[in-house]
């Protein structure tokens, strides 16, 4: 597939727009179904860049569907919101190609207003917090850890609030998550997030990638009272992926995600600033990292996956 970039969707009135997020645009298909379209927009530090990463939306969508299949096989009874990669028939023929492989039809659910973050290794904001006061999101961590070290007791659950577009997520203690979503659902979300991380981390490690941390989102099926895995899953946008063959405790790690972009923003004193356009080498390096993550985790060249249409449901 030729390189292309999609910054914003336009279905020419074929479906009503429900919302635009940092990366995804949501449309209503029917009363029980939404169309998630993943654009090529990229955000860092909760700010969307002015330019985009070519075909990033296809990579995120196909990788998410891959993880849905892997995790559903690993965890009996796991529910996801995914229905199909097929576009709904309402989409006009002359724009369908533009949205193929970056769109998925999903169940419409009530989404819990927390992000379920699981951290297997101490890095990023967790490392900064630990250096200051020995805690991560209010959780006491044993002293003496080095940067990028695995948490001695196993992965930890550190939820955050789910901010509106333009606002910033806020890390909260797991006890505060109970106040946001209720104790019953908070417990189930925590258990499910940790289980998902452990299965995914083992799968990725076999393929040469360490998942340092990741973010899950969940919805509620009101008919069955089940907690359902939604949104993107274990992508370079929502996770830190480190190459296992160069991992070394006591330093920051190279990564297959948008850490290169984050580092560039910090180095240029652009962290959190609106309207920033990535330099071409920064965008190119980020695109390269996304391709590498996809290919290692799926064992496929992503363009081949598209051309073979093996992902259509």
Description:
- The protein starts with 16 loop residues before the first strand and ends in a 5-residue tail after the last helix.
- The chain is built from 8 helices and 16 strands.
- The chain has helices spanning 56-74, 93-99, 124-133, 174-181, 183-205, 259-267, 280-298, 302-308, and strands spanning 17-20, 24-30, 33-38, 43-44, 47-48, 82-84, 103-107, 110-111, 114-119, 135-136, 139-140, 156-157, 160-161, 209-221, 226-230, 239-243.
- The strands form 4 sheets. Strands 8, 9, 12, 13, 14, 15 and 16 form a 7-stranded antiparallel β-sheet that branches.
- With 313 residues, it is an alpha+beta fold.
- Helix 1 (56-74) runs parallel beside helix 7, helix 4 packs across helix 5 and helix 6 runs antiparallel to helix 7 (280-298).
Summarize the structure.
Helices cover 33% and strands 22% of the residues. It is an alpha+beta fold.
Keywords:
16 strands; 33% helix; alpha+beta; 313 residues; seven-stranded antiparallel sheet
Largest sheet: 7 strands, antiparallel
Structural class: alpha+beta
Work out the number of β strands. 16
Could you list the spans in which at least 5 consecutive residues all have pLDDT below 50? none
Distance N to C terminus: 20 Å
Helix content: 25-40%
Give the amount of beta strand, in percent: 15-25%
H-E order: EEEEEHEHEEEHEEEEHHEEEHHH
What's the helix count?
A: 8
* Cα-atom radius of gyration: 19 Å
Instruction: Name the overall outline.
Output: globular
Mean pLDDT: 93
């Amino acid at each position: 597939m030729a390189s292309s970039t999609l910054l914003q969707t336009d279905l020419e009135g074929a479906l009503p727009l429900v919302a635009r997020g940092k990366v995804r645009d949501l449309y209503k298909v029917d009363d029980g179904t939404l169309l998630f379209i993943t654009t090529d927009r990229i955000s860092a530090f909760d700010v969307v860049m002015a330019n985009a990463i070519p075909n990033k939306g296809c990579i995120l969508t196909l990788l998410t569907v891959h993880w849905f299949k892997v995790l559903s096989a690993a965890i009996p009874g796991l529910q996801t919101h995914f229905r199909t990669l097929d576009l709904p028939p309402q989409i006009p023929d002359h724009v369908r190609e533009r949205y193929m492989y970056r769109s998925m039809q999903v169940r419409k659910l009530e989404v819990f207003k927390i992000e379920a973050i699981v951290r297997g290794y101490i890095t990023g904001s967790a490392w900064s917090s630990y250096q200051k006061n020995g805690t991560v999101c209010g959780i006491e961590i044993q002293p003496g850890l080095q940067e990028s070290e695995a948490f001695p007791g196993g992965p930890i659950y550190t939820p955050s609030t789910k901010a509106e577009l333009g606002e910033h997520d806020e890390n909260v203690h797991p006890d505060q998550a109970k106040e946001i979503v209720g104790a019953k659902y908070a417990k189930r979300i925590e258990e499910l997030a940790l289980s998902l991380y452990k299965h995914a981390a083992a799968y990725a490690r076999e393929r040469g990638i360490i998942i340092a941390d990741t973010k899950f989102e969940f919805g509620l099926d009101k008919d069955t009272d089940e907690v359902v895995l939604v949104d993107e899953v274990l992508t370079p946008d929502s996770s830190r992926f480190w190459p296992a063959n160069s991992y070394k405790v006591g330093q920051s790690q190279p990564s297959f995600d948008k850490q290169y972009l984050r580092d560039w923003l910090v180095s240029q004193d652009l962290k959190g600033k609106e309207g920033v356009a990535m330099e071409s080498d920064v965008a190119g390096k980020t695109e390269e990292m996304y391709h590498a993550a996809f290919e290692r985790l799926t064992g496929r060249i992503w363009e081949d996956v598209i051309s073979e249409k093996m992902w259509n449901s």
